[in-house]
């Protein structure tokens, strides 16, 4: 199933996009042929959503050109891109849950007579249209009454109707079951046969292999490769997504062997139905447990369970041997846990509050309403941790939102260190920050380990995980599938564990 | 778990960092606006700034502005905290009416005035808690949650007064509305002390910071271990308490509880005062004293319109003008225009 | 069943039950006379509530409704009594002024990106203020047209009177239902309430729709003012005080979700009638006082807000897939 060669239907060349000081895309090429399914892969922060937003008109590029059928185009907004033939279907279906299926298909272009919408005609046309996609449903029912799979197909039908050249599928299968995924793939294959160019974004590698002709892999805003999938193995793809092949240059040999302290926290059968299969894991003093796994593997969900952001429905948590109840973050903080979440902007920083306040806020929340840290304490604490972590801010009274991503991350880290925690969870601590700050954070993690802290660090960069972890836990399909120790803490064995090579072969 | 011991050293601040904060504060747009309004009033009425001492208390237009502005200022103090959490309380006007009705009916029924006052305050607190429960436990949007009491509240107040204006001659209630302490009208003294207490409470404890944190980013607040629900309950209860105090003042002032008109539209004045004071409707940073200044600006305009001979309702037109100006100035559009101009200026 | 119908069904059931109970107690309430008065007495509220339904469906709120009614009554009175215009001409001018006023508020909401409650709050101050600047006192209207209107009605079997203003309200509801459910504008309103960002991506003209929604609301408030003026034969700046709250309550009790996206114009009609029923019951009873209306309405409002939370936070039961095999 080789795609037709020739002029690509969509051709992006040297696309650059910069946000503030952060380069999201540094000169990326991407081409899509008619009649092919082209997978776009990369971890969070790799730049794939930025690239998609540029191709669909949601962002304007800062450099580079986009050619559609060989002619340069620039889109003011997604609506205009749609008019040019580029339709997008997002994971969180961007339709109207409160309106009927038929109306969702025809909104904005309903046929009318004397100003009144011809409902019957819309409904019969909607039925015909969906029949092509193998759907026979009551088109008068509210969209939200149907499963996400049906909503996806309705969204695809609408996008194809309106656009018809290029279809972008952004994580369409994230919440579908196996059967639904197959249905969706049938639809996609059909559209491919009709000559549409399809960009397919997902974090399920088996689906990439099943459906796609070619793959483009992005990492840190750069294109790593565009290759036909035939001839690639899962491990090849994982390796390209997660890091350099040369592995051991950061690896401090002997971490795994270093004497670790007593058991700090134990999670026994911690799980939540529909989110993460029960996990049993202990973390010791002076130990970093790294977590590897692709986006959507359940790695963030584990962290959220541990910190009580989502309440676990099975298992127990022991701190220093004593059971604790953690049903919400406040209880986790009381148990001596800290958590630097993956999405700094949404879950981490208080943008309008000062650097100082952002550092002392968790300590203050723990002290309660009436034991306020006075200004001198705050200045002192903020100063101490800013110095220790080398937070670069003109002064500590400026709003934290004015700092760079790396410095914001350090502020959140400082927030937890100020609490003198037992156990610290870091979810993608180096995501979206520049190279210098990246190295510093890796150094900091190592230093904290040496000082005796127990850490649980999620990362999608293998070199990084290897550089600080005593042990690595591998997640796949919302399940812990391997625990690597000793010499097995190496990029290659992690890649194999993620790619699904049986764990027995991997563990040592 | 011990937190790191903090050695208390004199804060070394960069020189020139905190020079003369008072001078800076006085140059804020709110103070300039207040000065401008007062100046216009003085031009319209040359005796505006004259203050006389008579019968053991101060008299004058300026004192009158403070006195008339006190109820809105008190409402604004509670409203500031609510708005800082990204909420709003539309029911405070109705709560004023309920509190006034309770106090008046009780003294008329022969209860001791002190008890009546306490009961009115308790009712305000309960009303605030009701709003707080709707917002936190049932997770209804604040504007909708407080709308319920806004609609039903006046009916409840009328239920208490049985539809009539309950008049009384109780000295304590009258003192709250029209008396004087150390030469200043009681409402002014109450408003000022409430402002001081509330400001001290939020700034000397961690409450202010935690409220701001919840208003800035509720999700991050949860991750940082802040228990937002208790904080929200407290804030709405406080707003209810402030409304009850304002209700007592208004009732004492007219020596009667008017369930229909007491506090009518004052919730809107209070919101306006908070917004003028610089607290964003999107939550976050707040300043109680600046909200009080906002209330004073509104009242100074009110008084100005009265003394210049316009009908008092003309005030509504002016108020709407003020809202429009503020909205335009705060809008993202204005911000982007200003930014462009700044960039241009920088290049020139 | 369609989720948006559930609260409506609850309202309809409550109305029917309440009416049956009321009739059981006061058989006199079951007459076309009472029904006719229902329509006449609540005409201005009903008309304003239709506009409010569109605003709330789109996810907004309009606090200026009562003030616009008050302003319109004063403007009409001034034009008829002071300028000497024919009432119909005055009505035309008043409606145009109201429409322009609503359009300006809609534009402010969209372009300044401010919450609708604060913009319409400014609008409320402005309209009340402008009305009192025109005339702080009530102006009585004496005109043969007014007398003629008040004398024209359709006699219903049983002695009830369907008055002109009652008919206007019914017509407004009929047009409102068509507009909401059978036009592109109506679809766009629901789309905005469902998700503004999705709506924009799907090609809904957000700016134009927002302006039109508030224009419609103010125009209907203006029409409610016309009806109020016919009803009272006077113009007064403080008339229709708090009607915005009654209108919001009618819309919500009628089953429209306060956060937008779900609801029916017909539901608002039942909401208005339920309010009318409460008032009429209180009048019939004679011992109950008028403030019970507000308390009952507040209670109903609370009940329906709770009901909506229950209905709309529960994840909808997904339909079984109907794959064509």
UniProtKB/TrEMBL annotation, chain A:
Protein's cellular compartments: Cell membrane
Major site of localization recorded for this protein: membrane
InterPro entries per the UniProt record, alphabetical: AAA+_ATPase, ABC_carbohydrate_import_ATPase, ABC_transporter-like_ATP-bd, ABC_transporter-like_CS, P-loop_NTPase
Membrane-protein topology: Peripheral membrane protein
Keywords per UniProt: ATP-binding, Cell membrane, Membrane, Nucleotide-binding, Repeat, Sugar transport, Translocase, Transport
Key word Membrane present: yes
GO cellular component: plasma membrane
ABC transporter domain: residues covered: 10-245, 260-502
Pfam family, one: ABC_tran
Gene3D superfamilies attached to this UniProt entry: P-loop containing nucleotide triphosphate hydrolases
Key word Cell membrane present: yes
CDD domains named among the record's database cross-references: ABC_Carb_Monos_I, ABC_Carb_Monos_II
SUPFAM superfamilies, per database record: P-loop containing nucleoside triphosphate hydrolases
PANTHER family assigned to the protein according to its UniProt record, in alphabetical order: CARBOHYDRATE TRANSPORT ATP-BINDING PROTEIN MG119-RELATED, GALACTOFURANOSE TRANSPORTER ATP-BINDING PROTEIN YTFR
Name this protein carries in UniProt: ABC transporter ATP-binding protein
Lineage: Bacteria, Pseudomonadati, Pseudomonadota, Alphaproteobacteria, Rhodobacterales
TrEMBL record, chain B:
Keywords (A to Z) from UniProt: Cell membrane, Membrane, Transmembrane, Transmembrane helix
Name this protein carries in UniProt: Sugar ABC transporter permease
InterPro entries the UniProt entry points to: ABC_transp_permease
Membrane topology: Multi-pass membrane protein
Cellular location(s): Cell membrane
UniProt KW Transmembrane helix keyword: yes
Record Pfam families: BPD_transp_2
One Gene Ontology molecular-function label: transmembrane transporter activity
Membrane spanning stretches: 31-53, 65-84, 96-126, 172-202, 228-250, 262-283, 290-310, 316-338
GO-annotated cellular components: plasma membrane
UniProtKB/TrEMBL annotation, chain C:
Cell membrane found in the keyword field: yes
Key words, A-Z: Cell membrane, Membrane, Transmembrane, Transmembrane helix
Superkingdom, taxonomy of origin: Bacteria
GO cellular component: plasma membrane
Its membrane topology: Multi-pass membrane protein
Protein's cellular compartments: Cell membrane
CDD domains, alphabetized: TM_PBP1_transp_AraH_like
Database matches in Pfam families: BPD_transp_2
Transmembrane segments: 38-57, 64-83, 89-109, 116-134, 154-180, 211-231, 290-312
GO molecular function: transmembrane transporter activity
Main location, first listed in the record: membrane
Protein name: Sugar ABC transporter permease YjfF
